[in-house]
Specification:
Strand content: 35-45%
Distance between the termini: 47 Å
Number of strands: 28
Number of helices: 5
Radius of gyration: 25 Å
Length: 401
C-alpha cells in the first residue's frame, strides 16, 4: 500500500455545517454521509497545520544561532474550493452548496414555490446566519492508496461568482480552525467487535487522524490517536455497520458509497441576461462578482491553541463585466462622469431550479474606456461601485429560482 502513488483525479469532497465552531458533524448513517458530497473543479484545504515555531531566545551553547525551538498557537488554515453552481430539484429548494452559503454568513429567505434568496446579514454571528463548516477531501481508491484530510471550523471570507462566457462558477475562499490528515494502514488486528483500543506501531500512529475508517465491512471511528504512541482509541460499528473481529486486515479512510451528484451546471448558452439601468438589451460578454463577506477569525486567546470565534466586519462587493459596445451605449459613459445611481442585475439559466439572478439596486458605473479594437468590434471592460441605502445590508441579493 505504501509504495504506490495516490490517484487524485476523482476525489470525494464533503461539505457539512457544524453545530459549534470546530465540531465536525456526525452523520447518522452511510446515506447521510454520502449526501454531504459535492462535485468540485478544484479543492485546496491548505497546508498541514503546525504550531507557530520560534527559536529559543536563550544564549546558545556555541556559535550556532539557536540550540532549540519553542512553539505556540496554531494559525488559521487557508482553503479554497472552486465548483459549478448546480441546478436544484425545485426553484425554492436549498442549493447543494448550502453549507458554504451559511459559512459565508449570508441570510437565507425562502419564498415558497418561487425562489431562495441569499443577501447580507446585519449580524451574521448573533442571528445564526453564519454557521461554520467542515470540509473533508478523500483521494484514492479503496482498499489501497488513500489520503484523508479534514478541515473544521471553516468560514468563507471571499466568494467570486462568474459566468456569461461559461457555466456559473463559484470560487469560495476562507480559513479553517483545525486540520487533520490521515492515510491507510496495511494491517491491523482487533480481537473482537467491541474492543475500543487498537494497537499500532509508533510509526503507524502518524498515519491516522480523527475520523471514519473502514476495515473489511466495518466502519470505525478513530477518535484519539496518540502520535508517537502505540495505542489508538476507536469507536466501533459506525454508520450502521456491525462490529466484528479483524485479523491482519487493512484499515483505510472511508469513502462513502452511493455518492451521486444531482443537478447540472447552469450553462451560459443563450441564457445570460444583463440589465444596466434602463437597458435590458445590454450585450454582456462575461461577468464576475467578488464578494468580501467581512468574516474573519477572532484573534487568538490566552490558553487556546486555535481561534475561538468569528467576527463580522464590513462586507464589500465588486461587480465587473465585459460588454460589446453599441452606439447608444456611449451615453452610459457620461453616467459614470455624473455618478448617476443605477441598478444592475445579471441572470443566467433557463428553467426553474436552474436560474441565478444577482441584483445590485444601488450602483455607480466606474468610468470605462474603449481600447483600440485592433480592427474589430469594440469591447469595454467596466466595473461598478456598489453600496446599500439607508436601510442598510441591501447592497446585493443572490436569487436562486
Amino acid at each position: 500500500m505504501g509504495t504506490s502513488v495516490v490517484p487524485g483525479f476523482d476525489p470525494v469532497t464533503l461539505f457539512a455545517s457544524e453545530s459549534a465552531l470546530g465540531t465536525a458533524p456526525t452523520p447518522a448513517n452511510v446515506a447521510a454521509y454520502a449526501a454531504l458530497a459535492l462535485p468540485t473543479q478544484k479543492v485546496d484545504l491548505g497546508p498541514v497545520q503546525a504550531p507557530v515555531v520560534r527559536p529559543k531566545q536563550d544564549r546558545g551553547l556555541g556559535r550556532g544561532m539557536q540550540d532549540g525551538f519553542v512553539s505556540g498557537r496554531y494559525e488559521p488554515v487557508p482553503w479554497n474550493v472552486m465548483m459549478s453552481l448546480m441546478s436544484r430539484s425545485a426553484n425554492d429548494a436549498d442549493p447543494r452548496e448550502v453549507a458554504l452559503f451559511k459559512a459565508a454568513g449570508l441570510k437565507k429567505t425562502t419564498n415558497a414555490g418561487v425562489s431562495t434568496v441569499y443577501a447580507p446579514s446585519a449580524t451574521p454571528e448573533a442571528s445564526g446566519d453564519f454557521v461554520s463548516a467542515t470540509l473533508t477531501r478523500l483521494m484514492g481508491r479503496s482498499p489501497g492508496e488513500m489520503e484523508y484530510e479534514r478541515l473544521t471550523g471553516c468560514l468563507v471570507d471571499t466568494l467570486r461568482i462568474e459566468g456569461g462566457d461559461k457555466e456559473v462558477t463559484l470560487n469560495w475562499s476562507g480559513v479553517g480552525q483545525q486540520k487533520v490528515v490521515g492515510t491507510a494502514l496495511a494491517s491491523i488486528t482487533l480481537a473482537s467487535g467491541v474492543v475500543t483500543t487498537m494497537t499500532v506501531t509508533a510509526a503507524e500512529s502518524y498515519a491516522l487522524a480523527p475520523g471514519y475508517y473502514i476495515c473489511e465491512s466495518e466502519i470505525i471511528l478513530v477518535s484519539a490517536p496518540t502520535y508517537g504512541g502505540t495505542s489508538v482509541t476507536i469507536a466501533r460499528a459506525q454508520l450502521g455497520t456491525t462490529g466484528v473481529a479483524h485479523t491482519a486486515q487493512p484499515l483505510y479512510p472511508y469513502i462513502p458509497s452511493g455518492v451521486s451528484y444531482s443537478g447540472s451546471p447552469i450553462s451560459e448558452a443563450l441564457t445570460t441576461n444583463v440589465t444596466l439601468d434602463d437597458d435590458s438589451t445590454f450585450r454582456c460578454l462575461s461577468w464576475s462578482i467578488d464578494i468580501k463577506t467581512g468574516l474573519a477569525p477572532l484573534p487568538g486567546e490566552t490558553g487556546s491553541a486555535y481561534f475561538q470565534g468569528v467576527k463580522a466586519t464590513r462586507y464589500d462587493v465588486a461587480p465587473s463585466f465585459t460588454f460589446l459596445l453599441k452606439g447608444n451605449d456611449v451615453r452610459k459613459f457620461n453616467k459614470a462622469r455624473e455618478r448617476t445611481s443605477l441598478a444592475f442585475s445579471v441572470s443566467q439559466g433557463t428553467s426553474a431550479g436552474g436560474i441565478i439572478t444577482i441584483t445590485f439596486p444601488y450602483a455607480e458605473l466606474v468610468a470605462p474606456k474603449a481600447d483600440d479594437s485592433a480592427n474589430d468590434t469594440v469591447t469595454v471592460q467596466a466595473s461598478l461601485r456598489v453600496r446599500d441605502n439607508a436601510a442598510g445590508n441591501n447592497a446585493f441579493s443572490i436569487t436562486l429560482t
